[in-house]
Amino acid sequence: MNQRVMHHDSGTEAATANAPAAQNGTLRLTAAQALIRYLAAQRVATEDGKSTEPLFGGVFAIFGHGNVAGIGEALYQYRDELPTLRAHNEQAMAHGAIAYAKANFRRRMMAVTTSIGPGATNLVTAAALAHVNRLPVLLLPGDIFVSRAPDPVLQQVEDFHDGGLSANDALKPVSRYFDRIVHPAQLLTALPRALRVLTDAALCGPVTLALPQDVQAAAYDYPADFFAPRIVPFHAPAPVEHELAAALARLREARRPMIAAGGGVLYGRATEALRAFAATHGVPVAETQAGKGSLAWDDPLNMGALGVTGSPGANALAHEADCVLAVGTRLQDFTTGSNTLFTQADVIGINANAFDGLKHRGLVVQADAGRALAALSAQLKDWRADPAWTQRAHTLADRWRASVEQLTHAPQRENRLPYEADVIGAIQRSSAQSAANDIVVCAAGTLPAELHKLWRAGRPGAYHVEYGYSCMGYEIAGGLGVKLARPERDIIVMVGDGSYLMMNSEIATSVMLGAKLIVVVLDNRGYGCINRLQQACGGAPFNNLLVDCVQGPIGAPAVDFAAHARALGAHAEHAANIGELEAALQRARAADRTYVISIDTDPARTTDDGGWWWEVAVPEVSSRAGVRDARAQYETQLAARSATDGNARGTPGKPDKPGDKAHD
After folding, report:
1. Which fold has domain 413-600?
2. Does the CA dihedral 24-25-27-32 come out positive or negative?
3. Of the four listed, 71, 502, 529, 657, which is most buried by Cβ atoms within 10 Å?
4. Region Disordered: what ranges (predicted)?
């Protein structure tokens, strides 16, 4: 596929091309036809504001019992207006749809349709991922018959106490909006509500419309104007006066302020507002996983990654700051060091969602990030951070950039396996414009920690790591979604062997769609990240690395990832070392299809620089001395946190990190 799935056009005729003639201002359509027609009619202004394009870039579909006859026929009818893409796994295609929305900064999105049973329940993990990350995706699982005439139908999950439940009810806790369409007319209210949730910065997340198969096929006379093409507005609150006033009063007192930039900066298109605020007022900026790329990596005030996987300078300043401006972040424990990193600071939470802004006992400004930063800056006027604080930020940022250069360009020792920093350096050296053109995609394990510290994001969107849900298996499917959104960019998927084995089938989909990915598989022969965490908590190496697992007489398999990828239609090879990896990357960049490169890596090594404590509960009672020692250390760390809890200006010592960097 050589162009973006969401085709550009500025006209409004496309969505009506296959419509039946209107009678008395109505259109007689099945519920499924009405649903797809409505989605196809929704449009969004392009970034330059000069034209429009479809809001929905397409529908990922795996047809089966419960959606092939109803919604499948509707998708065929409107296939020119709303492309249908076939995938190989329902969870994976939902990951792809979510990644597509993230790559478009939530301004464009996709829908996903499945059968009524396993197809529907396969969406639960992906829905949870979208919910945690505040990302829009429209889930359209088939459902049982409303009539119940064939009850129980094939794949029906029966509840012994509630006849109205189906497998789709498992999606309720992980949906921001859920509706079961039990009559075709219900779409007239359900679809506008769904669209509002998908496009509202405060509500944004997964929407599930469960579609009983008999209702999908039922016809209704819909008002014709319901399907008129419309430009969809995106909703984000403006700051209110009293919240701004409180924030301004606190900021004016601050001498050592710091900004924690989260994903809301990117989704709110507030990167320039952030840069201007930091530069004008001399405030250093540290980035969360979702917010990385908010500021160019070489900006003088970009301190790098924040938190458990953070850089030394960012964490040092965060622990000394007297005020933290948390912009568009939900302040999860990896950002706050399990609520130990900036206990001495007052927190001002700028967030479209007050639920997130109030965390860490923050002073909330419920607002769009860009609007809030601009409003604060305009009234702060000549206020600046203490010059010594700003200068220290410059010094620490420069020092960290020099460290990153060294870590990613370290000489390779003979007979020593490389680790993630070596691979990251090779990837970035493989393209003179890598910082500007590449998009790195990752999700779970050791890699997100190393990437958070070491990847150089040259512009917004160059860093695409799903770490809100830390979902193994997201990587390749997510890479596909990013490529569909950004076909002009090189998409570098970095994935561990564990995640690759969990979910890899969308390699075949990427080949089929012509959506080329470069997939680098780091093979450390097991779950290296959790193996280190296990030992840091005093446990014995057990059931993580393949060598420590129960095995049959022939032992663990030696997986040939390159051979496997070739079997799925990709080009692939194995690199024996970093030099071979760099050469392979050049071949991959020149290739005509998805290219997979595997390389053996060290499961024990990580980057020692930076990091912070992360709370993982250690057993209170154990027969193992190592566990008892780890418990004692854990209790010391808990006591240190308790000593500062509620003391906004306390000065606790930096908590010890678990041994061997297990949190990475």
Report:
1. Rossmann fold (3.40.50)
2. negative
3. 71
4. 635-664
